[in-house]
């Protein structure tokens, strides 16, 4: 009986503490100022750091776009999606054999593609085309990052 109580206490404690550590990706809600600072940092970074920094910017831009779309500001959300497409292209151009955090960039792009897929399912019919285009470009950048990782 004691082992059952100990196990139940351990299980309860682990279930309570896991959500606090489950997703550090979405810690703080992004805003335009932090995105702009991240983009500036990425443009001035060493080539081996740029892929991850651009992936981080794309991820934060996606989260902001989702928040804007949920708030009903589809114009800003659409503009943000167009910027995401441009930065997905920059990720493609910044991939190199000596990327420092390529695996982290691929993980961020995977999560970003997942979030864009969620946005696609909840968006209106007229907004789905831009979301599909953005999702395709992010997925392509993710696939290229993954292929780069496995080619080493």
Count of DSSP helices? 6
* Class computed from helices, strands and strand pairing: mainly alpha
Name the shape in a single word.
globular
Query: How many separate domains?
Result: 1
Low-confidence stretches: 7-24
Number of beta strands: 0
Gap between N and C termini:
53 Å
- What string gives the helices and strands in order? HHHHHH
Roughly how much helix do the residues carry, as a percent range? over 70%
- What is the mean predicted local confidence, pLDDT? 82
Determine the strand fraction and express it as a percent band: under 5%
| Oligomeric state of shown chains | single chain
Rg measurement, Å: 18 Å
Query: Major sheet: size, sense and barrel closure?
Result: none
Protein described:
It is built from six helices and no strands. The chain is mainly α and 152 residues long. The chain has one domain. Residues 7-24 have low confidence and may be disordered.
Question: Which features does this protein show?
Answer:
152 residues, 6 helices, 0% strand
What's the helix and strand layout?
Blueprint: H1 2-21, H2 32-44, H3 47-70, H4 74-94, H5 102-122, H6 128-150
Please outline what is shown here.
This protein is mainly alpha-helical and 152 residues long.
């Amino acid at each position: 009986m004691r082992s059952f109580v100990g196990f139940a206490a351990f299980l309860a404690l682990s279930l309570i503490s896991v959500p606090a550590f489950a997703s550090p990706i979405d810690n703080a809600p992004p805003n335009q100022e932090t995105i702009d600072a991240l983009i500036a940092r990425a443009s001035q970074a060493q080539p081996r750091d740029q892929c991850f920094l651009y992936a981080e910017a794309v991820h934060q831009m996606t989260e902001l776009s989702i928040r804007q779309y949920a708030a009903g500001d589809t114009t800003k959300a659409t503009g943000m999606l167009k910027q995401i497409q441009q930065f997905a292209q920059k990720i493609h151009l910044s991939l190199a054999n000596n990327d420092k955090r390529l695996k982290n960039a691929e993980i961020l792009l995977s999560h970003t593609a997942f979030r864009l897929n969620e946005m696609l399912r909840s968006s209106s019919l007229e907004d789905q085309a831009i979301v599909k285009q953005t999702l395709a470009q992010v997925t392509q950048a993710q696939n290229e990052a993954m292929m780069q990782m496995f080619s080493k």
